[in-house]
Amino acid sequence: MCWRASSPTAIARPRRSPCVTSSSNWSNIATATTGNLWETSLVHDPLVLLPSRCAAVNRSVAVVTGAAGDIGRAIAARLAESHDAVLLLDIDGDALRAAAESSGAPERMVPAVCDVTSEESLADAASRAARLGRVKTLVNNAGAARAVSLHDTDGEIWRKDSALNLEAPFLCFRAFADALKESGGSVVNIASVNGLAVYGHPAYSAAKAGLIHLTKLIAVEYGKFGIRANAVAPGTVRTRAWEARAAANPQVFEEAKRWYPLRRIVDPEDVANAVFFLASDQAAAITGVCLAVDCGLTAGQAELAGTFSQSPHY
Question: One GO biological process from the UniProt record (predicted)?
Fold first, then answer.
C-alpha cells in the first residue's frame, strides 16, 4: 500500500552526474561472472568502462533488492535519477535482465543474481557495488507472503517468511554497512502496513513488524556514522504478484478501495516516490521513521467512523 506524489515534480530532480556520459558507441553487454552472482552493465554506457576521469570513488551507487518485481523496478528507475549506477539484486535472473532492459535508464542499471538469504551471495554483491562506486543508498525490498492465517501457518512457513522478510534485510545491511559508513549513506527498508496492524499473512506480518524495529535499531546505533535508516510501509500495491493471487476474485481491488480513504490502492510508483524522498538530502534530518504509504488505510476507516458518528459526511 503506498502514497502517490501529487505531481511528478513535487520532489526536485537532482542534476545528472557529470560522470555518466551519453554515447551510442557501447552496444554490447559487458558481463563479469564470479561464484553464484553475475553482473551485467547494459547497452549504451557500461559504467565499468567509464573513462578514468570518472573514478569509482566519484560515482554514487544505489542497491535495490527484489529488483525484478514491480515495486523493485519502480524504485530502481526512480533512484537512477539521483545515482550514477543502480545495482539490481534478485534471485530471478531472467526477470532481472528484463527489468534492467525495460527501465528508463538501462545504461545505469547493473543487474546481479543474488540470494539475499545467503551471506556469501551478499558479500559478492557488496564487492561488485564497491567496484561500481560509493554505495549511497540501500533499499531492502525483497519479500514475500505465504500462509494467509495463523491457523494455516506451520513452522516451515514461519521460518521461510522470517528468513526472507526480516533476516535477509539484516544480513544485507551487514554486508553493506562498511560501505554505508564510508559514504554516510541511507537505508530504506520496505516494510508493510501488515507490520503495523493485522491484515492477514501472520508470518509475513510479524517479520515486517520486526523490520520496522530493525530500522530503528540501525538509525540509533549507526547514526553517529551519518547513516540514516527509514522504513516505508505500503498498503495493497497493484502488482502482477498481487493480481495473480487475486485471480480467484478479479474484483478484489475494486472491493478493497472501500477501506482506503483515498478510494484507491497503491501503485508501485507511489512506493518509489517515497523511497526517493527518504534517500534524498531533502530528508537529511529524517531517520528511524516508518512512513505509511497506504492511501490512508492506517489513518482510520471512514465507513466505521460513519457508523459510529451517524454522520453522512464520511
Answer: fatty acid elongation
Query: How confident is the model at residue 264, as a pLDDT?
Result: 95
Residue 55: what pLDDT?
59
Torsion-angle region of residue 234: left (phi > 0), alpha (psi -120 to 50) or beta?
beta
Identity of residue 303: E
> Helix, strand, coil: what percent of the chain each, to 5?
45, 15, 40
Cα of first residue to Cα of last residue in the chain, in angstroms, is: 21
Asked if 267 and 4 touch (Cβ cutoff 8 Å), the reply is yes
Q: Is residue 175 part of a domain?
A: yes
Distances from the Cα of 88 to the Cαs of 47, 84, 108, 152, 265, in angstroms? 14, 13, 10, 33, 26
Identify the CA nearest to 41 among candidates 23, 29, 50, 57: 29
**Whole-number pLDDT of residue 20:** 40
Whole-number Cα distances in Å, 132 to 53, 66, 127, 128, 146: 14, 19, 9, 7, 35
37 domain residue, yes or no: yes
Closest to 108 in 3D by CA, of 74, 66, 60, 140? 60
Q: Give the number of domains in the chain.
A: 1
Amino acid identity for residue 92 in this structure: D
| Residue 35, domain extent | 30-309
State the Cα–Cα distance between residues 292 and 298, nearest whole angstrom.
8
pLDDT given for residue 56 in this prediction: 66
As annotated, the active-site residues are: 204, 208
The pLDDT value given to residue 244: 73
Place of cell 564510508: 182
**Domain with 249 in it: what CATH number?**
3.40.50.720
Sites in the chain below the pLDDT cut of 50: 1-53
